[in-house]
Amino acid sequence: MKRLWTSLPNFVDCEKFHPSADLQEKQACRRTLGLPEEAFVVGCVAAVKKNHKRVDHLIREFARIPSSPFLVVAGARTDETDELLALAESLIPGRYRILTDCGRDQMPGIYRAMDVFALASLFEMMPIALLEALASGLPCLTHSHPVMTWMTGAGGLGLDMSREGGLAASIQGITPEWMRVHSAHARERAVKTFSPDAVIPQYVAYYRKVLEA
Q: Among positive and negative, which fits the CA dihedral 141, 146, 150, 153?
């Protein structure tokens, strides 16, 4: 059978989205956002809602972890946001910050304020936030969905986000060495596979193929 479709990835600006140069830059980003400078910060960039993005699952998983990690969620406000703010305040008071409707120019600094990126959705088409996190050198924790595990490659961990306690256990199991290795792989994955230099030639070649057909 003749193949009548193809797939090409989105790309991410790896110059705009990049890891913190050092601890001082990371702490400066945190001060700007009102985050604790010395905390271990797990972040998520997604619409602040339960449906699909499952921010409620993130909050409940954090409630399973002893007091040290800090959760930051940045995304568009929805009709579920106030409910999620109340849930976070009841379960993890003092250990979270939910940032709504942030400007596009704020996003690189938000990623650089994080240590790890976590996305609780059980399926995705190709989330730009995951690409931006990879480019920012963040190890990524996602559901073991084929698209997200392909996107992340060796830059993170795919787990069963539908299982209660799975994300909490994964966060508690993170070590400095795991962070070092997966941060490097995350950045490498973004640059080699999803940078404009990697993706745009694929689009040009495909359009050329279409025109020559």
A: positive
The two tokens of residue 8 are 């090409």
pTM, entire model: 0.95
CB 155 within 8 Å of CB 189: yes
208: in domain: yes
Q: What is the pLDDT of residues 70-105, one digit of tens each?
A: 999 999 999 999 999 999 999 999 999 999 999 999
> What pLDDT is attached to residue 190?
98
What SS3 state is found at 209?
helix
Residues 120, 44: contact at Cβ < 8 Å?
A: yes
User: CATH no. for residue 159?
Assistant: 3.40.50.2000
Q: Is residue 115 part of a domain?
A: yes
- Split into its structural domains, the chain has a count of 1
Q: Tell me, what amino acid is at 89? A: E
The answer to the question of residue 4 being in a domain is no
* Strands annotated E in 66-211: 70-75, 96-100, 116-118, 140-143, 156-159
Q: What are phi and psi of 76, to 5 degrees?
A: -70, 140
Whether residue 8 is contained in a domain is answered as no
Residues 55 and 73 sit within 8 Å (Cβ to Cβ)? yes
DSSP letter, residue 75: E
Look up the domain containing 110 and give its range. 23-212
Residue 189 near residue 154, CB atoms below 8 Å: yes
Distance of CA 21 to the CA centre of its chain: 19
